[in-house]
Amino acid sequence: MGLRELNVDLTKEHVTLWNETKKFLSEVWRPAAIELDQLQNPADVIAEGSVLWDVLKKTYELEFHTMSIPEEFGGMTMDPLGGAIFAELMGWAAPDLAVSWGVCTTPYSYAAYSPAPELQELVRNFVNDREAKYTGCWAITEPDHGSDWIMFDGDNSSNPDVAAQVRAVLNGDEYVLNGQKAAWVSNGTFASHAALWVCLDPSKGMDAGGVAVVPLDLPGVSRGEPLNKLGQRALNQGEIFFDNVRIPRYMMVAEEPDMYKFFTSAQLGLANAWMGSTFTGCGQAALEEALNYAQNRVQGGKTIMNHQNVKLKIFDMFASVEAARSLSRRVSVYNANQLEQMLPPAVHYSMASKVLATETAFRVASQGMQIFGGNGLSKEYLIEKIFRDARAAMIEDGSNDVLSIDAAERLQRGRNVWAVTEANVGATQPVAAEAEGPSWEEMEPMLRPKGVQMGVMEIDPEVCSQCGNCILNCPFKCPFKCWVEGEDGIPQLKEEYECFSCYNCMVACEDDAISIVESYHVKKGFFKTDPLPLPQKMPLRAKDGDGKVEEWNATERLVFERRSVRNFKPDPVPDRMIRRVLEAGRFAPSGGNCQPWKFIVITDRALIEEMNTSCKNVLSMLYNTYLNDSMVKMLIPMYQQNQQAGLFDPRIIMGGAGSIARDYGKVFLDAPVIILVACDTRAIGGPQISAGICGQNMNIVAQSLGVGFCWIGFSQLIEMDPPLKEKLGLSDPWAINTAAVLGYPDFKQQGIVPREFRPVTWFREGASEPEIEGIGGDND
């Protein structure tokens, strides 16, 4: 029977990967690591002529360095389970070289997230490298900051006292770097580029961090001597110093808080999961060495494997390694799938994997040394090196003690019962469903639409009083982003800005200084406007039976004049008014009269801000992904989960999501009241239409009461934050369908504006064919 692979998900490709990779690593990596381990001076590890360079070159020649790079740059396709297997094998062969290799690709992986052509070219150069000229390091640890980086999103993260030491100060179009990274930067002594974690604003502690991809041959960069260590001696580590180092702003790949936190969370989740897989392999190596020795070493007239005490140790080692393998593979696959969908990883599971695997590797190596007896202390036997390498792993990439404390706090903040959902089950499977979903060629017209013409707005400088109401009332804050000062000091609009001609600026303008000279339209492709051009028309006048114009009734006028309100006074809305709005929704019609809604009213400012942050995090990921040609393909799984083409309408991503991501406004508009409309997903005919009717009832009644109202479709993003959804008291089958915000308008935001007019088809009694109403219409 013996040792065997129990993973039933292995494919032929996985088996080939295992066999071919293990052969290469056993022939090239393991003997080189043993040789490097025995060098007395760690500087000799990276010296010219060192076997380290042969190892790197041979590994680059096999293109293993491209495994974490997107295909668009020439990267190698590697599914999550294959990646976990590869990490196990590296840890089995040489944990020290495995850690060095793991960080070697880090800067280039982050550069692939950037839309900057210069960084994309860097990624391509790295992929095409076969001589190990492009190497990397993860430069995060500092003399005063080690494992505490793990607490980047903890309760104390905003404390200025915990701000990182390496500071990046924006100076024009450049960042100026100053500070020191500690001696524990893996590959810090020789890497050509660094994924550098920095502080952008010390007053905000770790909340204002940034991630830069920095060449380490720039003026002002210097390095310390290689660190002389107990274990993992083939892994060269050393200090990096920055003295007024200037980098172009595009090198700061994460300078806004949400992207920084996403990168840090992703790095933490992936690094710990990777450590779990790698040191599962290390534990496997210790088990194999001990088992082989026990079956050959004779004492007391028989091989020591036949002594009961040794049998107990071997079985305990075996069971422990298999437990670590089971957890590490599941965590690696799950978190890789999460990140493919731009969702946060389950960091506490990654921490559990790292802690369990590294402590298992050390304990198994220690038991193995005990089985070897005195020979286990000799450098003649591999078990001695495995023991030292495993011990180092309990400290690197976060001390196990700190990881355990942080993971426990995450458990404390999250749900306290086991939750199994369809999404979780699906995410633990290897990615094999891509072939069943839409291809990139099918999705490209949707994700990269062509012929988009945003609206064109003009301001009459002779009339404009510069009150600013147009800026405030723009859903995307277009003028705020796009005004430049003209020669005469009068603000002028830039040529390109995100406007979809909603006319809200015209409604708010008390000077009648604004006009929309070209409305939003799409000339071709998936989102093509049909018909094109599509006219904008004021409402048709009401007429009596004789064709004479008459006044609209009160309800009609309310419908025509109603506008979404996005600027509110801080005054609270009384509960009695909120109740009247809710009652209007409750009495809306619904399919089968099933009334599939329930309302959640939030006036707690702290909770509203938590909801703002949660939704903004998702929108920032969506927006920044959309800016990158290679990353935009990562949106395909999002579409597969929620097949709504409208999610990728340019107005949503470039306008709405972009506005929120760039801090031009908040998701919930600083309104004093939020009403979440949650629906029973089992409702007759689906709940969307019923919820819309319900919400429109509330909308009209709110306006009639003098209370401003605005739809918040982005509220559905809370569904992607299970702890917050749970906090709001929602669980299956209830899901957030939409939301509304209420408050008293801060200024005039009502008035009649044009709307798009599409021809109406009439089938009249006695007519021989349908009548298509022209675009003219009677507005007199």
Question: What does the secondary structure layout of this molecule look like, with pairings?
Answer:
Blueprint: H1 12-37, H2 51-61, H3 80-93, H4 95-104, H5 106-111, H6 117-128, E1 136-139, E2 167-171, E3 174-181, E4 193-199, E5 209-215, E6 221-223, E7 240-248, E8 252-254, H7 257-296, E9 298-299, E10 302-303, H8 308-340, H9 347-372, H10 382-393, H11 400-413, H12 422-427, H13 440-447, E11 452-453, E12 456-459, H14 469-473, H15 478-482, E13 483-485, E14 491-493, H16 504-508, E15 514-518, E16 521-522, E17 536-537, H17 554-561, H18 575-586, E18 597-602, H19 605-626, H20 636-641, H21 650-661, E19 673-680, H22 688-704, E20 708-711, H23 722-727, E21 734-743, E22 755-756, E23 761-762, E24 771-772
Parallel strand pairs: 1-4
Antiparallel strand pairs: 2-3, 3-7, 4-5, 5-8, 6-7, 9-10, 11-16, 12-15, 13-14, 17-22, 18-19, 19-21, 20-21, 23-24
Helix pairs in contact: 1-2, 1-3, 3-4, 3-7, 3-8, 4-7, 7-8, 7-9, 7-10, 8-9, 9-10, 9-11, 18-22, 19-21
Overview of this protein structure:
The chain is α+β, with helices and mostly antiparallel strands. Among the domains are: 244 residues, Butyryl-CoA Dehydrogenase, subunit A, domain 2 (Beta Barrel), CATH 2.40.110.10; 148 residues, Butyryl-CoA Dehydrogenase, subunit A, domain 3, CATH 1.20.140.10; 121 residues, NADH Oxidase, CATH 3.40.109.10. The chain is 41% helix and 13% strand. It has a four-stranded mixed beta sheet. Strands 2-3-7-6 form a four-stranded antiparallel beta sheet, with no helix packed on it. It has a four-stranded antiparallel beta sheet with strand order 18-19-21-20. Strand 9 and strand 10 form a beta hairpin. Helix 3 crosses helix 7, helix 7 runs antiparallel to helix 10 and helix 18 packs across helix 22.
